[in-house]
Design goal:
Blueprint: H1 7-37, H2 43-55, H3 57-91, H4 98-122, H5 126-150, H6 158-174, H7 178-198, H8 206-228, H9 237-254, H10 258-264, H11 274-300, H12 305-327, H13 334-357, H14 361-383, H15 389-417
Helix pairs in contact: 1-2, 2-3, 3-5, 4-5, 5-6, 6-7, 7-8, 7-9, 7-11, 8-9, 8-11, 8-12, 9-13, 9-14, 11-12, 12-13, 13-14, 14-15
């Protein structure tokens, strides 16, 4: 019996395998392109799927780790360079003429953005370039304050934060950068709250600032809802939705305690000022306009009645709660505590339901985290005076472990529902 060698057939077999792999890759690329155009996945997700299929799970996980390390190191390096340049200019600030200061700041800013653009979009180093772009956005804010200082303008002015926000918001969309979008949303929130405090008779009026922050949360979330309506803007919706939800639920949780009202009412201004009312009306107007556009679009697209008005209705409730805190029509904290406890429950379960329906894991996580926080708080309030302290801690710990176990099972079901598999990291 003669032994047959496959040497003569090795070439055709290899060619067939390569052809099959190439055909599968073309088919997968075409399908992913259709999914991306239909809005099922984003550009970033499509690239991640192709990378995963081309290199396999182990190398893909390793690549993700290196990607995160590259981003962290690049961001830290860019921030350190920017801080060094700013400190050098600041140390010689008094001896530099005003026009020379302006030229140095503008030249440094332009050079930073040019280098980031070259690396991110021309040279093919998106992570390093994106990190430098993020550092440049932060440096822009420092430059705004340095320019104000060089021309002897007050630097304790909230308008400078608004200029910072207006300067970097277009940059976030031009470069498709979620980190810069998050930075812009955070700067806007701080700037509006600072502006609200400066527009009252008493700058330490905490309840007025909280009321403005609640109105700001509604505006941020409503803007995120608008982004979901446009295919080319869905990529940026996450920072607005998550930021608005976090701010609204966090402030609502804070206002569920009567002690907070008793403590803060003493610092409240006796009357609302015209500038404060104008600012609150502008922020509310942004939210209402976004709600009207969302409802109009949902009516035109023929969505169900619940889908049309459920989410806008919750945002409208948040707007009303912001004005309730600003005007404070009741002298007793009782109505506020009851109302904000009910609103907290609605926001928590609303975020979980919306996250499940819209397949947004981050929104589900926000609701679950605040559910655990609120449940733990109420447990402590009810049992700390009824049980021995050690027993209360033991029972509370067992309760939290049980909730954590149930949440983990629920989270795995959600991930399967989203069509995602949870990847465990290698030791």
């Amino acid at each position: 019996m003669t032994e047959q060698t496959p040497d003569s057939d090795s070439g055709p077999i290899t060619d067939r395998s390569d052809a099959q792999a190439s055909g599968r890759h073309r088919w997968l690329t075409g399908r992913i392109g259709q999914w991306r155009e239909s809005g099922l996945i984003t550009d970033e997700q499509s690239r991640a799927i192709l990378d995963f299929e081309s290199v396999g799970p182990p190398r893909f996980r390793l690549g993700l780790r290196f990607n995160r390390l590259i981003v962290v190191l690049s961001t830290l390096g860019a921030v350190l360079i920017g801080a060094g340049l700013i400190s050098f200019v600041a140390s010689n600030w008094d001896g530099i003429p005003a026009m020379a200061k302006l030229f140095l700041l503008l030249a440094g800013q332009i050079t930073t953005f040019w280098a980031a653009y070259q690396l991110q979009f021309v040279r093919g180093y998106p992570r390093v370039g994106g990190a430098i772009m993020f550092a440049g956005a932060a440096w822009f804010g420092a430059n705004v304050f340095l320019v104000a200082q060089s021309y002897h303008l007050a630097t304790d002015n909230p308008d400078l934060l608004i200029w910072w926000f207006l300067g970097i918001l277009p940059l976030a969309y031009i470069t498709r950068s979620k980190p810069i979008t998050v930075m812009a949303v955070g700067i806007f929130t701080v700037g509006i709250s600072w502006k609200a405090a400066s527009q009252t008779d008493d700058a330490d009026s905490a309840l007025l600032v909280i009321g403005t922050l609640i109105l700001t949360a509604a505006a941020i979330y409503a803007i995120g809802m608008l982004h979901l309506r446009r295919e080319n803007l869905k990529f940026y919706a996450g920072p607005y939705l998550i930021g608005g939800a976090l701010l609204a639920i966090g402030l609502t949780y804070l206002l569920t305690f009567d002690g907070v009202f008793n403590e803060l009412q003493s610092s409240r201004s006796p009357a609302l000022t015209g500038p404060y009312l104008a600012l609150a009306a502008i922020v509310s107007g942004i939210s209402i306009a976004a709600i009207v556009v969302n409802v109009w679009n949902s009516v035109r697209s023929g969505e169900k009645l619940v889908s049309r008005f459920a989410e806008p209705g919750v945002v409208a409730l948040v707007i009303g709660s912001g004005w309730l805190i600003a005007t404070m029509p009741f002298s007793s904290p009782g109505p506020y505590v009851i109302g904000f406890n009910l609103l907290l429950v609605l926001l928590i379960f609303g975020s979980i339901v919306l996250g499940i329906v819209n397949k947004r894991e981050a929104l589900v996580n926000v609701g679950i985290v605040f559910f655990v926080i609120d449940l733990s708080t109420r447990y402590i309030e009810l049992t700390v005076d009824m049980l021995d302290t050690s027993l209360a801690f033991i029972v509370g710990g067992l309760l939290l472990l049980g909730i954590g176990y149930a949440m983990e099972r629920g989270r795995r079901r959600l991930l399967r529902q989203f069509g995602m598999m949870e990847v465990t990291s290698d030791a």
